[in-house]
């Protein structure tokens, strides 16, 4: 995975690769089922290719899960930062509001 690639882009890329591999595996399975007993060698080669494709699909799905976790982690940090900023603004407003009320009461005396 290149460092410059964003998790969202990686996720979309991996989904496209998985779709292509799944289509290829399905075509091969259909082809293998259509072969008769005379073509045992070809059938075993096709089944081997299908197994390889299934392994590639599983690997890509694992990479997708990793990318999803990275995206979710970034979102969690973003929402956490927003909560902290909101709390600071609320605290500052409260302190300033109390100070203004105190100053008005003090001037009014």
Describe this structure in words.
By secondary structure, the chain is mainly alpha-helical. The protein has one domain (7-108). Helix content is 89%, strand content 0%. The protein is built from 2 helices and no strands. Helix 1 (7-34) runs antiparallel to helix 2. The longest helix is centred in the C-terminal third of the chain and has 69 residues, at 40-108. It is rod-shaped. It starts with 6 loop residues before the first helix and ends with a helix. The model has no long low-confidence stretch (mean pLDDT 81).
Strand segment tally: 0
- Our estimate of the beta-strand percent is under 5%
Sheet of most strands: none
Q: Helix segment count?
A: 2
Shape: rod-shaped
Low-confidence stretches: none
**Proportion in helices:** over 70%
Radius of gyration: 30 Å
Protein name: DUF1640 domain-containing protein
Transmembrane segments: 84-105
Keywords: Coiled coil, Membrane, Transmembrane, Transmembrane helix
Coiled coil: 43-77
Write the layout of secondary structure elements.
Elements: H1 7-34, H2 40-108
Describe, in short, the structure shown.
This protein has 109 residues and is mainly alpha-helical. It contains 2 helices and no strands.
List keywords for this structure.
single chain, 109 residues, mainly alpha, 2 helices, 89% helix, rod-shaped, transmembrane, DUF1640 domain-containing protein, coiled coil, membrane, transmembrane helix
